[in-house]
Structures are given as C-alpha cells and as structure tokens.
Specification:
Layout lengths: L22 E2 L1 H11 L3 H8 E4 L4 E4 L1 E4 L3 E4 L17 H5 L7 H13 L10
Antiparallel strand pairs: 1-3, 2-3, 4-5
Helix pairs in contact: 1-2
Amino acid sequence: MNNGNSYDCSKCPGYCCSYPLIEVSRSDIARLAKHFDVDYATAEERFTLHDAEEKVRGLRKRKDEFFGTACRFLDPKERRCTVYEARPSTCRDYPYARTCGYWEFLKFERDLQDDSKFVAMTR
C-alpha cells in the first residue's frame, strides 16, 4: 500500500492498462518523445493512434494474455509500466481516489479462489 491508498498496484496485473482508450495529450506525447529521444511527430506516429469516434489520440495497444489487448507500454511478463517516469497524465492520476475498483475486484477474486496470485480473466 502507498500514501494511505487502499490498493497496491504492485500486486495487480495492470487492469487499468487494458482500457479500450488511454487518452494522451500533446504534453503526454512530448514527454514520451523526450523519454525515447525522438521528435514529437515520430512519438505521435509510433506510440499513438487517432480515435475517430472520441476525436482524441490514445496509446497504441498490443496483444495481452489476460485482457486480449493492453497498453503497448505494459510489460507482459512483469505487468509493470515500461515508461513509468514518462507515463501519460491519465495514468499518473488513476484511479482518481484512494480506492481502486480493479483492486477491490482482484482482492475479492483472490480471496474467493484462496489464491494470492489468481488473475480473473476479463475476456
């Protein structure tokens, strides 16, 4: 646990990284560009896609064994963000409260299965 929060991200498989759209701002893209030492246009093209329905840019995804797809920056084995220091604002601010619904769900399922490493499949 950290900072009085009721959740522990280090024990979660990255549920929040499986959101259908992880929106990024221009400053988020600039931060990723700096992190990877590329120009803004390269970062935008390499790391994001335009979501025509929402009319915003979001992070690209890749296949994921637990969720079908997840953020391209989620390490599939370690289940940690590979760009943590340069992560987008939406990721920095999540879960926007002292509790996390995913963490509560995960704890419930692990208690039910009597398995501290159980990951409920969401597909």
